[in-house]
Amino acid sequence: MQDNYLGNGIMRLGKKIAVFGGSGFIGREVGYALAHAGYVLTFYVRRPARYRELTLLPNARVRAWQPGDKVSTQAAVADHHILLNLLVDQSDRLEAVAPERFAEVGQSLQQAASKAGIQRILHLSYVDADGKAGEGWCKQLAVLESAMHGVACAQTTTLRTSLIIGAQDDTSSCYRDQLKRMPFVPVYGAEYRMQPLWVRDLARLMVEMVSHRESFGKKRIVVGDDTLTLKELALEVAEIMGIENAMVFSPCRLNARLLSALGPLSPIKSLHPAQLVTLRGDRVVDNVDFEAQFGFKPTEVEVALSTYVTPHDIRHRYHFFRKEAGRDLSELPKELL
Fold first, then answer.
1. FRET pair for 21, CA 20 to 30 Å: which of 67, 92, 147, 270?
2. What is the pTM for the complete model shown?
C-alpha cells in the first residue's frame, strides 16, 4: 500500500473519472475544475446528444448510460479509476434520477464499482441525510451514501452540503429570472434556513479532495459561512439586481407543484421542480468552520451572487455599484435615472 502514496497524505491515483449526475450546474462546474486539473472525464447521461458541449472540456467525453441497468452501469464504470457521484443534483429536470430510484441506482453503482476495482469515490450529499428518517428524501440520501461507502475496494468520501448556488442553479438563478419579469417572487420554503456554498468553491474542494488521504472513509460537512433563509437569499438577489421593494412570499406546496409542473410555460420562474424534491426544512450545521477544515475561506454569498445575477445593463450596473459604495442615488446625473 505504501507505493500508492506520494507523501503528505496524498494518494497516487489514476486519472480516469466516471461522472454520474454531472449534467446539471454542479457537474459542469466540478467537471471544468477537474478537467483543467488534468483528469480525464467521462460524463454518463441518458441522452448524450443533448450534452455535446461537455466534450469541449479538455479530455472529456459524453457517453450513454441507463440508470439502474447493471450491464450499462458495469460498462460505464469499467476502465476508470475514480467514480464521482453527483446524482443528488436535481437541477437538470431532463436527466435527474428520481430520488425514489436512489436505492436501485446506488446498488448498481456499488456492484459495478466493486467489480471494476474503483480506487476512489467522491459522493455529494446533503446535511439532512438521515438513515433513521423512515421514507422520503432524507432516507433516500442515506441509502445512496451507504451504497457508495459499501464499495470495499474504494476509498470513499461523502461531502454533505446545505445549498449549492451558482449560475443555472435551481434557487437563486430562478429568483433572478423571476425578478427580470416582475418584483413579485414566490419562494418555495421561504423560511427554510440554509448555509449557501458557491459551486466554484465546491469544485475547488472536489479537486483537492480527490487524492487527499485524510478524507478517506469520511463524511465531511461542507457549508458556507453565511446563514440565511431562502427569502433572504431572494431579497439579496433583488438588491444586487437593483430592484427595490421586491415582494417575496412562500406559496403552498400544491400551488408550487402546479406552477413548477408547467415548466417553460409557467408565468412564474422562481419555482423549480427540484425545490419540491430537495427542500424539506432547515439545513444548518452549527460550529462548522470551512476554512479550518479545508484551508481556504468560502466566497461570501453576496460576492458569489454578483458573478451571475448582476444586471448587464450599464445603467443598472452603475446604480448597483454606487449603492455598494454608499453613494446616494439622488447624486446621479439625471440622464442616468
1. 270
2. 0.88
CA 264 vs. chain centroid, Å, equals 22
pLDDT given for residue 133 in this prediction: 73
Do the beta carbons of residue 171 and residue 275 sit within 8 Å? yes
Strand 16-20 versus strand 82-85 pairing type: parallel
Place of cell 438563478: 173
Instruction: Give me the pLDDT at residue 130, please.
Output: 83
Sort strands 5-7 and 10-11 into parallel, antiparallel or unpaired. antiparallel
How far is the C-alpha of 166 from the C-alpha of 252, rounded, in Å? 26
Residue type, 93: R
Return the bridge partners of 271, or none. none
| Rounded Cα–Cα distance for residues 240 and 123 (Å) | 33
* Residues contacting 92, CB < 8 A, separation 6+: 23, 24, 25
Largest CA distance in the chain: 71
> What would the 3-class secondary structure string for the chain be?
CHHHEEECCEECCCCEEEEECCCCHHHHHHHHHHHHCCCEEEEEECCHHHHHHHHHCCCEEEEECCCCCHHHHHHHHCCCCEEEECCCCCCCCCCCCCHHHHHHHHHHHHHHHHHHCCCEEEEEEECCCCCCCCCCHHHHHHHHHHHHHCCCCCEEEEEEECEEECCCCCCHHHHHHHHHHCCEEECCCCCCEECEEEHHHHHHHHHHHCCEHHHCCCEEEECCCCCEEHHHHHHHHHHHCCCCCCEEECCCHHHHHHHHHCHHHCCCCCCCHHHHHHCCCCCCCCCCCHHHHHCCCCCCHHHHHHCCCCCCCHHHHHHHHHHHCCCCHHHCCHHHC
Report pLDDT for 226.
95
Q: How many CB atoms lie within 10 A of CB 199?
A: 26
Cα separation values, 169 from 292, 305, 323, 332, Å? 27, 11, 26, 34
